[in-house]
Amino acid sequence: MEFIAEIRRRHFIEGESISAIARDLRLSRPTVRKHLKTVVEPVYHRQQQPYPKLGEFETRLVAWLEADFNLPKSRRRTARRLFEGLQCEGYQGAYDSVQRFVKQWKARRISSPAVKQAFVPLVFAPGQAGQFDWSYEQVELGGVVQTIKLAHFRLAYSRQMFVVAYPREAQEMVLDAHNRAFTFFGGVPRQMIYDNLKTVVEAIFVGKERRFNRRFLALANHYLFEPVACTPESGWEKGQVENQVGNIREWLFTPRPSFAGFAELNAWLATRCRELAERSHPSEKSRRIAECFADEQPHLRPVTAEFDGYVEQMVRVSSTCLVSSDRNRYSVPARWAGQVVSVRTTAEHIRVVADGEVVAAHARCFGREQLICDPWHYLPVLEKKPGALRNGAPFQGWDLPAAIRRVREHLLKQAKGDRAFVDLLLAARETGVEALAVACELVLERGGVTAPVILNELRRLMAPAIPVEMALPDQLKLATEPLADCSRYDHLLSGSLYVH
Question: Is 286 helix (H, G, I), strand (E, B) or coil?
Answer without folding.
Answer: coil
